[in-house]
């Protein structure tokens, strides 16, 4: 089971969370978000996948930020279509090819920003409240690496509330997904229950329930959650 900590914002806090070795750290590039990220991402362990969160963003801006920050994954939190994702993947590939060609002709500079050597993972978010039409997922099965199911609410994310997880009992696909939406320490029992199911849950995504204020994560609570759920199983 993987762990993603989303909504990272401040350098010292990023370093503290990174020391816990989560699998993914999420950086939100959306001006309307209270956790909108601007600045420099400190050096992180290579095992951590830097994930950029975007909402209906221009493809050129997504590509630019992937290159600037060396993002390993992108999380699409808006109304992005299958055609949008296909076009984005084509641009990733073109950018990667250009960088390979450039590196043949010039000596690599230390810390040179570039599209990562491995393909950028694509995570498509779908909001759920009390019900969900599973059929909307079918067109995306071939173009994304993972789905992420979050709570549909006033904000695009970070609402701090859970949706009815029983909706996912009818999930018919093998495509793995991230489970998100208001997950906190008080949910250990319900997390254990859903993880014991046959659902292809790839990762748990946590955010606002572990904050003292938007963008600042509570390290001790995150450590407890990680140790109980990810490392040792729920206690």
TrEMBL record:
Q: Which CDD domains does the entry link to? A: PRAI (cd00405)
The alphabetized UniProt keywords are: Amino-acid biosynthesis, Aromatic amino acid biosynthesis, Isomerase, Tryptophan biosynthesis
Which branch of life, at top level?
A: Bacteria
Entry protein name: N-(5'-phosphoribosyl)anthranilate isomerase
Annotated metabolic or biological route of this protein = Amino-acid biosynthesis; L-tryptophan biosynthesis; L-tryptophan from chorismate: step 3/5
- Start and end residues of each N-(5'phosphoribosyl) anthranilate isomerase (PRAI) domain: 4-109, 114-227
- Signal peptide (UniProt feature, chain positions): none
Protein EC:
5.3.1.24
Cite the GO molecular-function annotations of the record. phosphoribosylanthranilate isomerase activity
Q: Catalytic activity, per the record?
A: N-(5-phospho-beta-D-ribosyl)anthranilate = 1-(2-carboxyphenylamino)-1-deoxy-D-ribulose 5-phosphate
Keyword hit for Electron transport: no
Gene Ontology biological process terms from the UniProt entry: L-tryptophan biosynthetic process
Entry-linked SUPFAM superfamilies: Ribulose-phoshate binding barrel (SSF51366)
Provide the coiled-coil residue spans: none
| InterPro entries reported for this sequence | Aldolase_TIM (IPR013785), PRAI_dom (IPR001240), RibuloseP-bd_barrel (IPR011060), TrpF_fam (IPR044643)
Which family does the record assign? Belongs to the TrpF family.
